[in-house]
Structure formats: C-alpha cells, structure tokens
Design brief:
Elements (H helix, E strand, L loop, with lengths): L4 E4 L3 H9 L5 E4 L5 H6 L9 E4 L9 E4 L2 E5 L4 H6 L1 H6 L1 H8 L4 H6 L2 H6 L54 H7 L3 E4 L3 E3 L21 E7 L7 E6 L10 E10 L2 E10 L6 E2 L1 H7 L6 H11 L11 H16 L3
Parallel strand pairs: 1-3, 2-3
Antiparallel strand pairs: 4-5, 5-8, 6-7, 6-8, 9-10, 10-11, 11-12
Helix pairs in contact: 9-10, 10-11
C-alpha cells in the first residue's frame, strides 16, 4: 500500500471536518473489509491521502427499537445484526441477509453501513494494479465496459448504466429495500429507493464525499414479520450472490395488502420488482401466483450470452422467497 494519514475521529463533526480538509481525497473506515482490499490493490484513480476512522466515535453501534422503528447504528457489525433477537423476531429477512453475508470472520469485521456502501463488483474494475497494471475499464476512465465483450458471467441481466454492467454485491441491500428503510446521514435522510446510484461513477450510492451514514431506520411491519431473504451463491459460506432476493408482505385475512420485492446481484443497483408487487396486490399468495410474480420480474431482462442462467435463477428465487413469507 501507499502511505496515507490515519485519523481517529472522536465525533461525527470531527470526522466530517477531516473529510472536508483540502489536500486530496479522503475515505472513512468502519470495518474496513472492503476498503483495505481497495487500498492494497491500488484500485482508485486517486489514492486517498487521509483515512478517517469511525470506530472511535461513540454511539454508532446501537440496535434499538424506538418510535415504532428499528434503528441500526452504522457501525453495527453484520454478526451483531444477524444475532439480535429483536431483528430475528420482527425483521427476519434482515437477520437472514446479514447471516448469509460473507464468512464468520468477515461478518465480525464488516459493518452494516459498509455493506450497503461497498462499490460494485467486477473483476475488470477490481483488477489489482500489482498484477500487470491497472485495467482501464469505463469506471476508471476508459471508453468501454470490458465485461461486455469479455467475461460477463456474473454481470447485469438488465443492461448497463453509463456503459457499465457491474452488479451491486450487497446482501443486506435488498432486505433494506424490501423493508422500506431510510438511510440517515450527516446531511439528510435518504429513502432507500433513492440511496443507490450507479450513475455516480465508481461509487454505488448518492453519498457526497464528505457525507457519512450514521444510522439505518427500518419501520415496523404493518401486519407482522412477513418477510424473507434468499441467496444463491457457488460457495454458500463466503461468496457474493449470483442472485439474491428479499420480500416483505403485509397480509390481512389471507389477502396481500402491500408488497415490496427486491432482487440484487442482477443489475448495477438493487432492483425493485414493481411489476411483481402490482401482481401480488389484493390476492392470496399461492404457488402459482408466486411463480407468475417471478416471471414478471424478469420480463424485461436483457441477458448477454454468458449470463442467461441468471434469468431463471431470478424467477425461481422470487417465487421461493415469496412462499417463505407465509411459512
């Protein structure tokens, strides 16, 4: 790694001030499981001059229920989220998503905020500088996405954003989308549907460079814990998802009164399945309806010749996740 200055922030205000100081780019570190890999591989066009440690700031590791919602501090680890009994009982899709992320070691290190803020995955974009030099894909200032004519087995099946077909890798993101979460930062409250943005260049969110996630707020379900999460990966214990899915339903007298369904690992941003949600409204959930919902979710898919298998995976995982909601 190259040299950089490391600062232990004692407050959110100090952390923001350190990010705003002149003299080159700066990044925050929470768990560091993604950041350290990026630093070692010299991933970015501009190497950071300052790293601001958030772990020294008190009050960012709480999980609490308040005002009818779940409040998750930005530095809560994935292990802590997965094992919290209140989360298991009322927001089971979120608990399961955290449990299925990475390996036990990575879950012990990785934070919830870090999991939703990590950059998109692509072996061309993340090719280590130390192995033959940087590959200038479109996200690094190149003229084209190298995955399109190259190896795109695990890339987007819904087309490109700014020529790039890398996918969002987060496991917790689809659960937060399905549960209609709000991301609280040092500047604003961001509805989860507006938080992810592959249009921002290398980063995968709308966060400004001096903006820090402080808390994630998840409303209590309208009609009980009817949510679920599923993930398909090669190695179940560690790999990023080929496809994952989260669903949250409100069911009154066997009738679906609200529905939110989200896929990930299939596009640059977590993908709300709005056609699926509309098809579910006002109906009783059955195997046949769940399968129809899965078909609708991929009706506008645009797979390339190497990743068409993900279309069938997406259909199946939606149907299975929906049925999990009523088990």
């Amino acid at each position: 790694m190259k040299r950089f200055n490391h600062f232990d922030a004692r407050s959110i205000e100090e952390a923001v001030s350190l990010l705003q100081e002149g003299g080159g780019p700066a990044y925050v570190i929470g768990g560091g499981s993604d950041l350290m890999g990026c630093l070692k591989d010299n991933l970015w066009m501009e190497y950071p001059e300052r790293i601001v440690n958030l772990k020294t700031i008190p009050g960012l590791k709480d999980i609490r229920e308040e005002d009818g919602a779940l409040h998750i501090g930005a530095l809560v680890t994935l292990t802590e989220l997965a094992e919290a009994e209140s989360v298991k009982a009322t927001w089971p899709s979120l608990s399961e998503a955290a449990r299925r992320t990475g390996s036990p070691l990575l879950r012990n290190m990785g934070t919830v905020a870090g999991n939703i803020c990590q950059e998109n995955r692509c072996w061309y974009y993340r090719y280590p500088d130390k192995i033959g030099g940087r590959i200038d894909c479109v996200r690094k200032g190149g003229k084209r996405c190298l995955a399109v004519p190259g190896d795109h087995r695990f890339h987007s099946i819904f087309g490109a954003v700014n020529k790039c077909i890398a996918v969002n890798p987060s496991d917790t993101a689809p659960s937060f989308v399905a549960l209609n979460a709000t991301i609280k930062t040092t500047k604003r409250d961001i509805p989860i549907d507006q938080f992810f943005s592959a249009e921002m260049g290398a980063q995968s969110t709308v966060l400004d460079r001096d903006e820090i996630v402080t808390e994630i707020i998840v409303p209590k379900p309208e009609a009980g814990p009817t949510s679920a999460f599923r993930k398909i990966a090669f190695r179940q214990s560690i790999d990023f998802a080929l496809v994952n899915c989260a669903a949250s339903l409100a069911i009154v007298d066997d009738t679906i009164t609200s529905a939110r369904v989200c896929l990930n690992g299939v596009h640059n941003n977590p993908r709300r399945c709005e056609a699926t949600e509309e098809a579910l409204m006002g109906k009783k959930l059955t195997e046949a309806l769940a399968q129809e919902a899965g078909e609708l979710a991929v009706a506008d898919a645009k797979p390339l010749f190497q990743n068409g298998f993900k279309v069938q995976m997406a259909k199946t995982i939606i149907a299975d996740t929906l049925m999990d909601c009523i088990k």
